[in-house]
Structure formats: C-alpha cells, structure tokens
Write a structure and sequence with these properties.
Bound molecules: FE2/S2 (inorganic) cluster, fe (ii) ion
Helix content: 10-25%
Largest sheet: 8 strands, antiparallel
Number of helices: 6
CATH superfamily of the largest domain: Naphthalene 1,2-dioxygenase Alpha Subunit, Chain A, domain 1
Distance between the termini: 38 Å
CATH architecture of the largest domain: Alpha-Beta Complex
Number of domains: 2
Number of strands: 18
Strand order of the largest sheet: 11-17-16-15-14-13-12-18
Radius of gyration: 22 Å
Length: 350
C-alpha cells in the first residue's frame, strides 16, 4: 500500500550528473514513483516530461526523438520538448482539432555545475508548475563543474537511506579500514550543530585526528557538513586560504523500496587531478561498504521489526523525521516551513 508520507514534494531532486544526458537520446527514469522521460534538445537544454503519451499512455521514452521532437511509438503523435502536441499523423488535413491543447506534463528542470535537478510538485494539475523552492545551493560557483564519482541503488526506502547517510555511529563498523581508522582508537566526539533553511549543519571544525585520511591535508584544514531535505549531504572542506573540496552525496527515491545515491565531487587541489582515480576508488569503496550493509538491512526489514532511535548518535535521525513531518504540514497548509532544529551540541564515540 502506498504510504503518502514517505516522499517529500515541492522540492528538487538530483536526476543525474549532466554527462548522463546526451543530445538525441531519451532517458527514462522513475523518481518518487513517477515515470519521467529526460532529454536534451539541440540547443543543449535539458527537459523532463511525464513518461506517458496522453493518447493511450505508452511511455514516450519507448518512441523516437529527433529534431527536438518526441514521437510516440504507438500512433506516432508528436510533441515538442515542452510537451506540447504538434502533430497527430492519423488526423486528416483540414481538421479543426487544436493539437496544441494536448499536453504532456513538463517537470521544472535545472542544470547546475553539470548536475541535473528535477522538481517534483505536490500536485500536477496543469501542464507544468511554478517551483515553490529553489535548486539546492551546491556551494560551488555555478561556472565550475562537479565530477561524477558514483551512482548506486540502495535497496531501501528514502528514510532508511537518509538515516544511513547522517548516522555517525556506523562509520566505525562499516567504513573501518586500515588506512582510514582503526576500531581500537575510538574517541569521544563533541560536535556543534546549527539549523540551516532546510536542515542542519555540523558547524565548521577541524576534522577528527583519528582519521588519517585528513592529516595528509595539513595546515588550516576545516570542514562543514550540512544535511538538507529531501536527502542531500554537503561536505565542504577548506584547506588553507586557497583550496577547497566539495563532496556531495544526494539521495533520490526511485520508488518506495529503492533509493538512488549519487556522489559528486569538486576540488581545487591540483593533486586531486593526479589522484582522481585512487580518490574515485576510495569514494566507490565507501559507498560499496554502505551498500553491503544495506543489503543485510533490507533482509532484516523483511520481517517488519520494531526499530528504535537512541540517544545523541541518533539525534540527527530524529531531527530528520521532525523536519520531514513539519515540511509536509507546511505544504498542506500552504505556509512557510519552520525548522524545528535548535543550535546544540551532540556527543558520540566513534
Ligand atoms: S499511445 Fe501514443 S500515439 Fe497513441
Ligand atoms: Fe556510510
């Protein structure tokens, strides 16, 4: 049975890295259980339409795309990239039918720093909608581009995926590896948090000194980690005055049981150019470790066990649930969202 409260609407979701969208090619993708067809027109502009022909519902992604025209494979109806019907081949010339009244729903779409975002509205009453929110702030100057690290599909709903992303306590057990940290050197951590417009951030701090990976980047290194709904984690590392690293993980629910994780990366360090492949491997390794534990989690959840959120290590998970509930209420009541998170300090041992 569909759980209406699972997905957050009136927000932007990462559809894919820009490199996945080529001219003259249609890409079908399910997002929040909605079938969407994506493409790129001859001018390079991305578009997103509901992936159903308005005639009999055949997926438009199963048809043809040429000269900025989508053609359905069933009766050949033609649509422009705004979703407006241009031609119905079987209708005899001289007919009074106004084709332009027939429209496919067009999703708002934006491309920023080589990442493609789609807006999923609460209601699709007209042939398109005006977004109520803006595309997430990706920290990066919009003229610069993100590199794509990895995309994986987690066998879990969005809530479990988000909690896996912001949960500090699993790191010791899931991501433990000899060059990163050792389980024997556990330390008490104290982290300060502050609210952001759609979530919360671990305020700028020097990275923990039991993570060897960071000590390579000595000299005034600091990091700020932000989480915002629907499921985006932004890590901004500053190295000295000149350099920065931006590492972003996004979660896009495909449907009620699966969630796509994407990892994108940007760095001004010349070294990352030389170390890009090892770095990418490291990123993939981390995500692979999460995927491994999520496979086990999916098996565990089959028996629908009762779960718990305990103490400060799970505080962020509780905030997520509360933010989500209030976001949904604000959408229903059509009032501005008010973030329930207050500035505070959390402790945990990792
Ligand atoms: S179903 Fe698409 S043209 Fe008939
Ligand atoms: Fe993880």
């Amino acid at each position: 049975m569909a759980d209406n409260s699972l997905f957050l609407k009136n927000l932007w979701y990462l559809a894919f890295h820009g490199s996945f969208l080529k001219k003259d090619k249609l890409v079908a993708k399910e997002i929040l259980g909605e079938r969407i067809v994506f493409g790129r027109d001859s001018a390079g502009q991305a578009f997103a339409l509901r992936d159903n022909c308005p005639h009999r519902g055949v997926p438009l992604s199963g048809g043809w795309f040429k000269d900025d025209t989508l053609q359905c494979c069933y009766h050949g109806w033609e649509f422009n990239t705004d979703g407006v019907c241009k031609n119905i081949p079987a209708i005899a010339p001289g007919s009074t039918i106004d084709f332009s009244k027939i429209r496919v729903f067009r999703y708002p779409i934006k491309e920023v720093s080589d990442t493609v975002w789609v807006y999923i509205p609460e209601k699709r009453l007209h042939h398109t909608v005006e977004p109520k929110t803006s595309v997430p702030n990706l920290i990066l100057d919009p003229t610069k581009k993100f590199l794509h690290v990895e995309s994986v599909v987690l066998p879990a709903n969005i809530d479990h995926s988000v909690i896996g992303l912001i949960d500090p306590a699993h790191v010791t057990f899931v991501h433990q590896s000899w060059y990163w940290r050792s389980a024997k050197k556990l330390k008490l951590k104290e982290k300060h948090f502050a609210p952001t417009p759609l979530g919360f951030k671990m305020v700028r701090h020097a990275p923990s000194n039991n993570s060897k990976g960071y000590t390579v980047l000595k000299g005034g290194t600091s990091t700020e980690i932000t989480f915002e709904i629907p499921g985006n984690r932004y890590e901004h590392i500053q190295i000295g005055e000149k350099h920065e690293i931006i590492s972003i993980t996004t979660l896009t629910p495909l449907n009620e049981n699966t969630t796509e994780l994407n990892h994108i990366f940007y760095s001004t360090l010349p070294a990352t150019r030389w170390f890009w492949w090892p770095l990418k491997r490291l990123g993939k390794k981390f995500i692979g470790q999460d995927l491994g534990v999520f496979m086990k989690l999916a098996r565990g959840l089959e028996s629908n066990p009762t779960l718990m959120l305990i103490g400060e290590p799970d505080a962020q998970a509780k905030w997520y649930h509360e933010i989500k509930r209030l976001w949904q209420k604000a959408q229903q009541d059509n009032v501005p969202f008010e973030n329930p998170v207050k500035e505070q300090t959390l402790h945990w041992v990792t």
